[in-house]
Amino acid sequence: MKSIKLTTAALALFSLVSSVNAQTAEDYAAVAEFLPAEKLTSIQGNEAKYAEYVYLNRHGYYLSDFGEKDISIYPDLSQITSLYPSLPTINQEMVENNTLNLMGYNFPIKQNEYLYYRIDSSNKLLVILPQSLSLKNLNSE
Q: Which residues pair with 115 in a beta bridge?
């Protein structure tokens, strides 16, 4: 019985370390830089929760090309403000290269709802995944 408990604990630890290691040190630094201090303090020591924030920050969005469809019903990305004046205006390249730091901008990320924003004068949208779907994706990697 003791060996079953040890095996289960080892597998749980391996799973946690695997999901944490899937992100880079740069990804962790990006979250630490922009996550509000009280939230950062609340997740210290909880590596699984920290890994979730890191994953959401870098993988919680994608670029979608809507071709000829009218996307004028969606808000323009310029309506999203940064939390810090030193951050650049979000552009298509940041989204394509997965270098957008969601935590640095005022996105109203929803638990179960997609968000869509028009990018510049293109027919492309920044799509922000629901938090629940992003976490499901993290757990399936």
A: 128
What CA–CA distance (Å, rounded) separates 114 from 138? 17
Are residues 138 and 117 in contact, defined by beta-carbon separation less than 8 angstroms? no
The sign one gets for the Cα dihedral 110, 111, 112, 114 is positive
pTM of the model: 0.71
pLDDT digits (tens, 9 = 90+) for 8-47: 322 333 333 344 445 677 777 777 777 777 777 877 787 8
Can you tell me the distance from the alpha carbon of 63 to that of 24, in angstroms, rounded to the nearest whole number?
22
Which pLDDT tens digit goes with each residue over 90-108? Answer: 989 989 888 888 888 988 8
Backbone torsions φ then ψ of 113, nearest 5 degrees = -140, 135
Return d(Cα 132, Cα 135) in angstroms, integer. Answer: 5
